[in-house]
């Protein structure tokens, strides 16, 4: 957000406020727009990856590129139990809305803070129970993913087209900026 104001370049706009001066430069705006564009493209790539691949494929891919197994295990467990905690939070919010007759700011926030505390305690208890059950079944801290080397032609073609798209964006950036 502050990129246009702190880069050197030709001054496009100057805003003089009492004790400081804000200057918008051409290089700052170009850098700002390319950063926004790259962020948008990164989010789109992440969305395409998540929607086109199963969660176990993504996690086994992370292990193949040597992401530490503890991080992959944490991501797997977070993904696995996120929906369960979300459902419990919705049930708690439904209970709050059905029991709260006085809808002032203080009472609603008090009830929501109780809900957050209850969810925290429930998630700790559930995590301990899950860990004990996993440990009793021989869990040693590493998830074994089934590697399916099923490469579809459409996935490879999509990857090539997407890579060409990213390279062309970088070439346009070099040409025009």
Which keywords apply here?
6 helices; 2 strands; two-stranded antiparallel ribbon; 177 residues; mainly alpha
Intertermini distance: 20 Å
- Order of strands in the sheet with most strands: 1-2
**Mind telling me the C-alpha Rg?**
25 Å
Residue runs with pLDDT of under 50 for 5 or more positions: none
Please describe what this structure looks like.
A two-stranded antiparallel sheet has the order 1-2. It has six helices and two strands, in the order αββααααα. Strand 1 and strand 2 form a beta hairpin. The chain has 177 residues and is mainly α. It starts with a helix and ends with a helix. The chain has a domain at 68-146. The chain is 72% helix and 7% strand. It has helices at residues 3-6, 26-52, 55-64, 69-99, 105-136, 153-176, and strands at residues 11-17, 20-25. Helix 4 (69-99) runs antiparallel to helix 5 (105-136).
Which helices and strands occur, and which strands form pairs?
Layout: H1 3-6, E1 11-17, E2 20-25, H2 26-52, H3 55-64, H4 69-99, H5 105-136, H6 153-176
Antiparallel strand pairs: 1-2
Helix pairs in contact: 3-4, 4-5
In a few lines, what is going on in this structure?
With 177 residues, the chain is mainly alpha-helical.
